[in-house]
Every structure is written in structure tokens, then in C-alpha cells.
Amino acid sequence: MAKALHVPSDAEYADVSSQRLLGFLFFLISDCVIFGDFIFSYLYLRDVAPVWPPPGIERPYLYLAAVNSMVLFGSGATMHYAMEGIRRDRRRQFVAFILATIVLGSLFLAGQAYEYTHLHDTWAGSTFGASFFTLTGLHGFHVLIGVIYLITVFIQTLRGTYTQQRHFGLTAATLYWHFVDVIWVALFFLFYIY
Amino acid sequence: MELNLVLRGIALIGALIVGATALIVLRAEWRKTALEDHVTKIMMVLLTVGCVEVVLVALGKLGRM
Q1: Coil, helix or strand for B59?
Q2: Residue to substitute from B2, B10, B18, interface A, most A β-carbons within 10 A
Q3: Over the stretch A92-129, which tens digit does the pLDDT of each residue have?
Q4: CA of A39, closest CA in chain B: separation in Å?
Q5: Which of B45, B37, B42, B40 lies closest to B19, judged by CA?
Q6: Do A174 and A76 contact (CB within 8 A), yes or no?
Q7: Does residue A35 form part of some domain?
Q8: In sequence order, what E strands does chain A have?
Q9: Is the ipTM here above 0.95?
Q10: A152 in a domain, yes or no?
Q11: Partner residue facing A181 (CB), from B47, B57, B65
């Protein structure tokens, strides 16, 4: 005989969600450590080099990166309003803002792909190139995963998985997306400004 | 040269809009006390810092070409 599926009450769901949230925050902290490792190795390489960037290496195009940064930061704002849409049970707001976030995230990836194909350096070309492609590539991979994650939670929400009271998956997606934004604040400073 | 100006203009306008939005969100979230709200506040502050970075770049006060 098939076992009846236990549907948790709102109180049970809230309790489990708070534990999951803590676990998810530990995941984000561990991800911060990974980025921190690469950032420190970049700073070390930079510190020991007599000239930076190494001779013959051009810095990436600053103003294109500035526009691309704004595309990503803008997606952080739209993701917040998508989350607010679910919290207030405004489906249209949610749909409009999460679609905007997915489009902006994809545009950021397209901008990064354009930059990669036009940069006069390679992964193995110099210490600058190695650091640049490793760190921005790792970040770009996170953005790609984030876009896939957002598409998944968008479809799940349309199917009724997430509601005004029960939306942990969306909360996690929002925090992940903000995390990806904030990491870019540091990378933009390190590679394009500093 | 003109492309630079266009890109700087877009970056400046975008940074002002997103920065202002981040501050509005921060103000709205300020009194909330759940764990995810505190994380959101930290993220919004850092997002504002990013927007300030971009504004300074667009105005030519930061960054080297």
C-alpha cells in the first residue's frame, strides 16, 4: 500500500526553511572563501611583479566593463522586486521582474563573451591573463549557474511550487544572485580600476 | 572617442538608477529582522558601493584607460 505523503504545516515549513537558509548561507560563505583564495593569489602575483600589468599586456576595456557591471547590478535590483512580488502575492510583478533578471544576466554573459574574444591576452599568455580569466571565468560560471537556477525557479513558480507563504527556493535564488553581484563589485575594482 | 562617451553616459545613468534603487530597498528593509533580511541589507550596501565605483569611473575620477 502506498504511504500517504506528509505535507508540512506552515509552522513546520518555516522551521525547516530557517535551517535550510542557514545551510545555504554557509554555502555562500564557502564560495566567498574560494573567491578569496583566487583574489589573494592575484594580489600576490601583482605585488611581486615589477610592472603591472606585465609589459605588452593591455588592460581590459574599462567603459565596456562599466556598462556590463551596471547590467549585472541592475539585475540585482530586479531580482529583489521579483522576490517582493512573491512575498506580496503579485504574480505579474514576479513574472516581469524575474524575466528581466534572466535577460540582464544573459546580457552580462554576452558582454563577458565579447570581452573575452576581443582581449589581447590569453589564459596562458601572462600572469595577468591567467588571473583575469580564472577569476572572471569562475564568476561568469556562477552567473551561468544563476541564470539556469532562475529559469528553474521561474518554471517551478509557474507550476505552483512556490507561494506567498512557502518560497524558500526563491529566497535562496535571490541571495545567490545578490552574492554574484557583490563578488563582481570586488572583481570590477581589482581588474579594471586598481 | 565617441564610443567612450556613449558607454560612460550609459554607465553613469545606470549607476545612478541602480544606486538609488539599492538605497530605497535598503531603507525599506531596514526595520526587518529575519536572517535573509539582514543578508539583503549587506548585499544592498555592497551594491551601492559598486554603483559608486561605476559613477566615479564614468566621471573619469577612477580607473585608467
Answers
A1: coil
A2: B18
A3: 999 999 999 999 999 999 999 999 999 888 888 889 99
A4: 17
A5: B45
A6: no
A7: yes
A8: none
A9: no
A10: yes
A11: B47
